[in-house]
Amino acid sequence: MKEHWWKEAVVYQIYPRSFNDSNGDGIGDLQGIINKLDYLKKLGIDVIWLSPVYQSPNDDNGYDISDYYDIMDEFGSMEDMEKLLVEAHQRDIKIIMDLVVNHTSDEHEWFEKSIKKIEPYQDYYIWKDGKKGAPPNNWGAMFGGSVWEYNEERNQYYLHLFSVKQPDLNWENPAVRETVYEMMKWWLNKGIDGFRMDVINYISKDQSYPDGKKEKGEKYGNGAPYFINGPRVHEFLQEMNEIVLSKYDIMTVGETPGVTPAEGLKYVDEARNELNMVFHFDIMDTVDVVSDKWEKDRLDLFKMKDIINKWYETFKKQGWNSIYLNNHDRPRMVSRFGDDEKYRRESAKMLITFNMTLPGTPYIYQGEEIGMCNVQFESIDDYRDIETLNRYQKEIEKGREQKEIMEEIYWASRDNARTPVQWDDSENAGFSNGEPWIKVNPNYKKINAASQQEDPASVLKYYQDIIKLRKKKDNKALIYGNYQPVLEDDKQVFSYLRKYNGEKIFVILNFFGYNWEHNLEEGIIDYNHLELIISNYEVQINKKDTNFSLRPYEARVYRVK
Ligand code: GLC
Ligand code: CA
Fold it and tell me: Which ligand is nearest to the CA of 72?
C-alpha cells in the first residue's frame, strides 16, 4: 500500500460560524480560529477542513457562495485568511477548504449576468423553458419545493437542487469548468492544502431531464437517479485532476451522498486519477429509517459491521476511505450512536476509539472531542437551519402535530451540530461576548473544553491520548493495516484486527449500555498475548480469568504480541 501524508492525517472540521467569535458580534470568525490553533495542536490534529468562508449571503450558511475570491465579511478579511494559513502552517497544521461548485449563490455576479444573458455567462447555469406554464420536470429540491424556479426577466426556469438561492452551475459548459479550475488554482497558489468537495457527485446531470418517480402522497418526483453519479461526472473529475489537482501535493475528499462502495471506488481508485477519498453516507444511515433522515431507527450492529466490511473489501486494493461519525449536517455522534445521558463519557470515548481505529482517514467534527450533544430548543424560532425551517413549515402545512415535528427535529436537525463550541463555563460557553447567532446548548456548564483540559478522565484527554497512540511508529497497523473482523456474529460487540508488517492490533468495542460476557475458552481471543494500549475504563488484567467481560460502552485496544 502506498504511503501518503493524507492517509496518516487526522482531520478536524471547523464550521466557522459556530467555532469561536473573537469580536463579540455573536458569529465565529477567522481570528477566532487563529486563537484556538494551540488548542487544536494539543489535540494532535494534522489538517483543518474549513467549511466555507467565502463571501455569501448565508441562505445556507456559506454553502451559497457569491464570491469565491473574497472572505465573508462576518468572518474577517483575506488578510485574516492569509494569517490563518501562516499560523496553521507554523504549527504543522494543514488547511483544506470547502469547494462548493455544484451551485453558487443567486447573488453571485455570474448568475446576475446569466439572467441578463450577458456573455460569457449566458449558459453558466441550467436554464430551461417551462412546459405549458409548468416547470420543465417534476423533481423536488433537497430543501423543499421544486428544483425549478421561474425567472421573469429571462422568462425561463433555472435548476436548483438545494435552495432557490443556490442555482446549479452548468458543468456541460466548458467555460464554467475552466473558471472553476482557475479559481481552484488561485487558492492552491495561496498555499491551501486541498479541498473538501461539496456534493461533488451531483455536478453532472442527465441531459434529458426526465421526470422522477413519485412516492405516494408526494408532490414531487425523485430526480436523484438523474444527477447522482451523473453521466459525465468522472470525465469532469479526471479533467479537474489533470488540469489542477495533479499539479500540487494536496488532499481531496469528495462529499458523495448516495454512493455505493463500487461507485465510490471509481472516485478514489488510484489508477483513475480523480480524488483521494470520499465521504459516503452509509454509516450515517444506520440509525435512520432508510431514505428518511427525520425518522429514527434502532442501531443494528450487524448492519454497521456489514457496511464497514463492504467498503473495506471494495477499497482495499486501490482505494482509500474516510471515516466520520458526525459533521455539520449530522447530529452529534454521542446522541446518535451512544448514550448522551447516563454513559455520555464512556460512549463518546468508545465512538472515538471506533473513529480512530477503522481503516481510512478519520475526521473529527468540532466539539466531538469534548463529547458535545444534541440540543432541544423549545421553540422553532430558536432554529436557524434552512433545511429544518423549511421542513417544519411543510409539515405544519400538512396538518401534522407540532410536538411530533419537533421530536423529529430533535433527532435530525442540522442545528444539533451547529450550536456554538463549548469552550468554558462562562456566559455563552466562552464562544462569544455578544449574543450568539444560535443559542448555546444549555449543558455547557457541565460539558466544556476548559474543565476537560484539566481532567485526566475527560473525553478530551482521551482524544489527545488516542491520537498520540495512532501516530506512534509502532502502531502503523492502525493506519495501513488490513482489516479483519472478529466476533462477526455478535450483535453487541464490534471487534476487529488490524495487521501490518507483522504488527497486530486488536480492537474490541461494546456498542451498548449493558455488560457483555465472553468465555475465553471459545478461543477467539488469546488473552496471554494481548497488551492493553488504551481503554475508556480502568482495566484489571487477570490472566487466570477465563471470562472476558466488557462494561457498558467499554472500548479496549490491544497490541497482539
Ligand atoms: C452539502 C453540505 C451542506 C449543504 C449542501 C448544499 O451537503 O454539506 O451543508 O447544505 O451541500 O451546499
Ligand atoms: Ca465574530
Answer: 2
Residue 522 or 74, more confident: 74
Q: In terms of Cα–Cα distance, which of 83, 274, 276, 98 is closest to 191?
A: 83
Q: Is 141 left (phi over 0), alpha (psi -120 to 50) or beta?
A: beta
Residue type, 486: V
Reading the block at residue 480, the C-alpha cell is 495501513
The set of catalytic residues is: 198, 255
Q: Whose CA is nearest to atom 5 of ligand 1?
A: 63
Closest C-alpha residue for ligand 1 atom 9: 329
**DSSP secondary structure string, 177-212?**
HHHHHHHHHHHHHTT--EEEETTGGGSS--TT-PPP
Would residue 119 count as lying in a domain? yes
189 and 299 belong to one structural domain: yes
> Ligand 1 centroid to 199 CA: how many Å?
7
Q: What residues pair up with 50 in beta bridges, in sequence order?
A: 14, 97
The answer to whether the pTM exceeds 0.85 is yes
Beta bridge partners of 530: 560
Count of structural domains, the chain:
3
pLDDT tens-digit map of 314-353: 999 999 999 999 999 999 999 999 999 999 999 999 999 9
Q: How far apart are CA 150 and CA 158, in angstroms?
A: 7
pLDDT at 518: 84
What is the 8-class DSSP label of residue 134?
B
Residues 156 and 180 in one domain: no
Contacts of 447 (CB under 8 A, 6+ apart): 344, 370, 371, 372, 373, 422, 441
The answer as to whether 465 is a domain residue is no
pLDDT the model gives residue 455: 97
Query: Which of 361, 303, 362, 332 lies closest to 511, judged by CA?
Result: 303
Whether residue 377 has pLDDT greater than 70: yes
Residues 144 and 187 in one domain: no
Please list, in sequence order, all residues whose beta carbon lies within 8 angstroms of the beta carbon of residue 389, skipping any fewer than 6 positions away: 380, 383
Q: Which of 104-134 are b and which e, b meaning 16 or more Cβ less than 10 Å from the residue's Cβ?
A: bbbbbebbeebbeeeeebbebbbbeeeeeee
Domain span at residue 195 reads 174-209+220-320
Which of 275, 161, 150, 142 shows the shortest CA–CA distance to 227?
Answer: 161
